[in-house]
C-alpha cells in the first residue's frame, strides 16, 4: 500500500511557483484577519463612544460645558473622534464666527456646517481604513489561487510527458498540490468578503448618523445665532 501524502507534504513538494502563490495567499489571509479584528474592535468602540456622546448631548447639558469637557480630555492626551469630533469642529467655528460683527445668522451657520462636513469626511476616512485592502483580498485571492492551480497542473502534465508509464497515480500528487492553491485562495477570500460587506454596512450606518447629527446640530446653532443677533440688535 502506498503511503498517502499529508497536506504539509503536498505543500512542501509543490513547485516553487505554486509555493510562492501559497505564501502570498497565506500572508494575505493573515493580514486580512488582523485588519478584520482591528476594524471590529474599532467599530465597536466607535459605536459605544457615539451612543455615550449622543446621550450626553441630548441630556440638556450646556454646549459650552460639553466643549470644555472635551478640551480637558484632549489635554489629557485622549484622542477625540467620531460624532464628538464633528461637534467640536462645528461648535468651535460657530463660536468664532458668532463673535464677528456684521455677520448674519445664515453666514454663521453655513460656515459651521461647512466645517462639520469636512470633519465628517475625516471620520469617514477613519472608518473606511483597511476596507480597500479587504476588498482587494476578497476579489483577487481566488484568481491568485486559480493561477497557482493552473500552473501546478501544467507542471504535472509536463512531468507526465517524460514518464514511461502514464497513470493517475503519477499525476495525482501534482494535481493535489495545485488544488491546495485554489483552496487557500478561497480561504483568504471568503472571510475578507464577508468582513468587507459587514464593515461597509457599518460605515453607511455611521455616515447616516453623522449626517443626521449635523442637520440637528445646525438647527440648534441656528436658533442660538438668531437669538444672539437679536440681542445685539436690541443692545445696539
From TrEMBL:
| A Pfam family reported for this protein in Swiss-Prot or TrEMBL | MotA_ExbB
Q: Does the keyword Acyltransferase apply?
A: no
Q: Does the keyword Transmembrane helix apply?
A: yes
What are the entry keywords? Answer: Cell cycle, Cell division, Cell inner membrane, Cell membrane, Membrane, Transmembrane, Transmembrane helix
Q: Where in the cell is it found?
A: Cell inner membrane; Cell membrane
Q: What InterPro entries is this protein classified in? A: ExbB/TolQ_transport, MotA_ExbB_proton_chnl, Tol-Pal_TolQ
Topology of the protein relative to the lipid bilayer: Multi-pass membrane protein
Q: Which residues cross the membrane?
A: 12-36, 131-154, 174-196
Q: Which positions fall inside the MotA/TolQ/ExbB proton channel domain?
A: 83-211
Q: Which GO terms describe its cellular component?
A: plasma membrane
Please list the GO biological process terms of this entry.
Answer: bacteriocin transport; cell division; protein import
Name the domain of life this protein comes from. Bacteria
What does the similarity note say?
Answer: Belongs to the ExbB/TolQ family.
Question: Self-association or partners: how does it assemble?
Answer: The Tol-Pal system is composed of five core proteins: the inner membrane proteins TolA, TolQ and TolR, the periplasmic protein TolB and the outer membrane protein Pal. They form a network linking the inner and outer membranes and the peptidoglycan layer.
HAMAP family documented for this protein: TolQ (MF_02202)
Explain the purpose of this protein.
Answer: Part of the Tol-Pal system, which plays a role in outer membrane invagination during cell division and is important for maintaining outer membrane integrity.
Q: Which NCBIfam families match?
A: tolQ (TIGR02796)
Entry protein name? Tol-Pal system protein TolQ
Amino acid at each position: 500500500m502506498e503511503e498517502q501524502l499529508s497536506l504539509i507534504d503536498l505543500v512542501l513538494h509543490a513547485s516553487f511557483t505554486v509555493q510562492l502563490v501559497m505564501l502570498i495567499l497565506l500572508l494575505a489571509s493573515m493580514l486580512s484577519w488582523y485588519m478584520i479584528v482591528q476594524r471590529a474592535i474599532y467599530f465597536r468602540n466607535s459605536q459605544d463612544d457615539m451612543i455615550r456622546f449622543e446621550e450626553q448631548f441630548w441630556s440638556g447639558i450646556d454646549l459650552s460645558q460639553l466643549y470644555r469637557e472635551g478640551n480637558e480630555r484632549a489635554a489629557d492626551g485622549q484622542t477625540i473622534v467620531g460624532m464628538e469630533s464633528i461637534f467640536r469642529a462645528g461648535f468651535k467655528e460657530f463660536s468664532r464666527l458668532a463673535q464677528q460683527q456684521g455677520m448674519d445668522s445664515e453666514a454663521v451657520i453655513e460656515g459651521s456646517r461647512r466645517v462639520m462636513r469636512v470633519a465628517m469626511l475625516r471620520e469617514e476616512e477613519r472608518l473606511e481604513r483597511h476596507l480597500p485592502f479587504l476588498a482587494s483580498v476578497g476579489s483577487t485571492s481566488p484568481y491568485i489561487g486559480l493561477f497557482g492551480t493552473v500552473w501546478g497542473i501544467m507542471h504535472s502534465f509536463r512531468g507526465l510527458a517524460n514518464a514511461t508509464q502514464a497513470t493517475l497515480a503519477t499525476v495525482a500528487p501534482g494535481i493535489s498540490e495545485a488544488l491546495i492553491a485554489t483552496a487557500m485562495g478561497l480561504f483568504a477570500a471568503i472571510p475578507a468578503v464577508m468582513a468587507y460587506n459587514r464593515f461597509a454596512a457599518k460605515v453607511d450606518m455611521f455616515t447616516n448618523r453623522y449626517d443626521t447629527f449635523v442637520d440637528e446640530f445646525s438647527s440648534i446653532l441656528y436658533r442660538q445665532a438668531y437669538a444672539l443677533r437679536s440681542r445685539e440688535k436690541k443692545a445696539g
